[in-house]
Amino acid sequence: MTGQDSPRHFAPRWEGDTRDPVPAVGGERETLSAVLDWQRETFALKCAGLPPALLSRRAIPPSGLSLHGLVRHLAGVERWWFRIQFAGEDLPLLHYSDEDPDQDFGVLDGEVDEAFAVWRAECAHSRRITAQARSLEETGIRRRTGEPISLRRVLIDMIAEYARHNGHADLLRERLDGATGV
Fold this sequence. Notes:
The protein is mostly helical. The chain contains 6 helices and 2 strands. It has helices at residues 28-47, 52-55, 67-86, 103-106, 112-132, 151-177, and strands at residues 139-141, 148-150. A two-stranded antiparallel sheet has the order 1-2. It is flat.
C-alpha cells in the first residue's frame, strides 16, 4: 500500500498482548515456526486472566467446548503430531481412548493449571523436535496410513489447528466475560 492511505480502523489488539510479531520476511522454517508460536500465544492470551471455573465452563450450548477442554485437546494434538507421528516416540495419547475419544472436551477432571502445564510442556517438546530436524523435508510416519509426512506439513496442519481453535476461543471468551481482540 505504498503511497496509499491505510485504513484508519483496525481490529483492536488483545489487552496485555505480549506476543512477538511474526517476521514479515524470513526463511520458511523461521516463518512457519513463528506463525505457529504466534497462534499458540494467541490461545494463551484468550485464556489469560480467567478463573478455573470460567475456563471449564461450556459457555455456548449445545456445544461442549470450553477453554479447559481446548487446552487439553491442543496438548494432545501437539503430542500426537510432533512426538508420536513425526518423531516416532512411543507415548500414550493424552485425553483419548477408543472407548472414549472425546475425553479432552467431555471429561474435565484435573486442575486447569495442570492442563496448561501439560500443554506448555508439549509445546516445548514440539519446538525442540522442530529445531532438531535437519530440514522441513524430514518425515515422520502417519500412524493411520503408514505414509510419510513432512515436518513442513505438520507445521502447516498445526497452524490450521490453532487458527480453528483460536476462533472457538474467541467466541468462548467473548461469551464468558465480553473480552475481544486480535
